[in-house]
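Suppose a colleague, Dr. K., hands you the sequence of a protein chain of 164 amino acids and asks what its three-dimensional shape might be. Before reaching for any lab equipment, you can write down a predicted structure in token form. Begin with the sequence itself:
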Amino acid sequence: MIKKRILPVVMILAAFLLQTTVFQSIKLAGAVPNLLLVLTITYGRTSGLVIGFFSGLLLDCLYGSVIGLYAFIFMTIGFVVGFCKKIYFTDSLILPVVLIASSDFVYCFYYYVTEFLMRGRLHLGFYFIHKFLPEILYTTLAGVLLFELAAHLEKPKERKRKEI
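The predicted structure, expressed as tokens, is then:
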């Protein structure tokens, strides 16, 4: 029970620290992978809501101009993606790649609408090419690597269960 509650907290903090420190120094095309979004996607509806809320709240405290914007975006993405949980963990990487890319696009678009469009900055093409696309590609690549790592870590557990 305690492990079930502590592990997500440790994962949120680890992803937050990696995203805000290590990956800030290795930006590709000015983009940083959104590890907290990938972490939110990996959990189900209810857990995705909670993890999304706390992940977004951490980002709000560090980067946000309005407290709650990131939390709301992450919560809604975690809830919507949670509906795909039943078919999520398959041997194919197609569904996780599509979910990560589409969720990051929704995140970037919603962030554009709330931070730029409402202030009269209407250069959607510029933002898409210079901000959205690099972040989506970098986050998808990092997400695939994290999914492969998680799958590799899960396989020994499955073998041990089958042998016993």
